[in-house]
Amino acid sequence: MKIGPQFRDLAVAQGFIAVVLFLLIPLANAFGGPSANRIAGILHGVGASMTLLVATYTWHAYYMYVRGAQGARLKLEWRLLVTNLLVLLTVIIGNWLYIGYQSPEGAAEWFKLHLPFGHWVVMEYKEFVSLMAIPCGITAAVCLRRFASSGDGGREVRYAVGVLLSMMWLTLLIGFVFGLVLSKWKGV
Fold first, then answer.
1. Measured at the alpha carbon of residue 49, what is the angle toward residues 167 and 161, in degrees to the nearest 5?
2. For 4, left (φ over 0), alpha (ψ -120 to 50), or beta?
3. Are 91 and 134 a contacting pair, CB within 8 Å?
4. DSSP labels for 120-145?
5. Do residues 176 and 17 touch, judged by C-beta distance below 8 A?
6. 159-172 residue pLDDT tens
7. Helix, strand, or coil here: 65?
8. Phi, psi at residue 127, to the nearest 5°?
9. Residue 126: which of 100, 98, 105, 104 has the closest Cα?
């Protein structure tokens, strides 16, 4: 099975989006506020960056799996396991950062007074969309392990895994971009 041009275009688009976002990170960090919780912010930012990179790497492993290459399912399973662990660690560190965000005189209070859109839409939306990566990643891993290894419904399982991986990657991208925007509005 040959990879169609639509897959190649999607891969190029993903790569371009990732390069642009990662080139913007140093510029965004140049405007960080002095009150930011630096350790938690750095760990969460590095975790989010690594998670998005590994999720992109995992998503591209899906191409070989769709083509039916020998050993592609096992590689995809391992990459998906690493991605799921990184998502979990990034969420845990994000919760550590969220404690300071919600503390009295924290960034949430400032947002609610000066920029309610920043808290109620961007932060809350970012928080819940980013958390959707966990069920998408776990469901894709379970589908790979349970159904793809037994050979039941091979084509349908491959497409379902592709949709789940796409949703996981998209939620991670939205969380990453909104996190950058939010952290630069007021040094969270």
1. 25
2. beta
3. yes
4. IIIIHHHHHHHHTHHHHHHHHHHHII
5. no
6. 899 999 999 999 99
7. helix
8. -60, -50
9. 98
CA angle 30/36/38 to nearest 5° reads 80
Tokens of 103: 């503390």
Dist. CA 81–CA 141, nearest whole Å = 7
Single-letter amino acid, residue 142: V
User: Which amino acid would we find at residue 188?
Assistant: V
Q: What is the pTM of this model?
A: 0.74
CA-CA distance, 112 to 122, in Å (whole number)?
12
Helices (H) then strands (E): counts for the chain: 8, 0
Tokens 């349908």, residue? Answer: 156
Do 82 and 96 contact (CB within 8 A), yes or no? Answer: no
pLDDT for 2 beyond 60 = no
Helix segments in 68-106, DSSP class H = 72-102
Instruction: Give the list of residues 6+ apart from residue 111 with CB closer than 8 angstroms, or none.
Output: 118, 119, 123, 185, 186
Cα-based torsion angle of the residue sequence 119, 120, 126, 130 in order, rounded to the nearest 10 degrees: 120
